[in-house]
């Protein structure tokens, strides 16, 4: 179950966040990033996001296990098959098109 935190609110359209709020689970993330998985979200930005903006992610003990959102101005999906940072750890990163947000328009994001 997701709990809204830091100003995030559940509405009849879903979770509303303002750039600082988020939703979290009470237990560790359920996704094993060392095997195949898919994550998906519908988002409706109210303005052009900055260089980085999380839509979905799963925290690890040291580093994020996966990230779906905006990275360096592009819609992006990143996965770490192992928890860690530095030269011994791999991050698989794919990026799609540059982000061109039309305010109040829904966008469907999927990472596989």
Task: Give the gist of this structure.
The chain is mainly beta. It has no helices and 10 strands.
How would the blueprint of this fold be written?
Elements lengths: L2 E3 L3 E3 L2 E3 L5 E3 L14 E5 L8 E8 L4 E8 L2 E6 L12 E7 L8 E5 L1
Antiparallel strand pairs: 1-4, 2-3, 5-10, 6-7, 7-8, 8-9
Please explain how this structure is put together.
With 112 residues, the chain is mostly beta strands. Helix content is 0%, strand content 46%. The protein has strands at residues 3-5, 9-11, 14-16, 22-24, 39-43, 52-59, 64-71, 74-79, 92-98, 107-111. The strands form 4 sheets. It has a 4-stranded antiparallel beta sheet, with no helix packed on it. A hairpin with a 2-residue loop joins strand 2 and strand 3. The model has no long low-confidence stretch (mean pLDDT 81).
What labels describe this entry?
10 strands, two-stranded antiparallel ribbon, four-stranded antiparallel beta sheet, mainly beta, 112 residues, globular
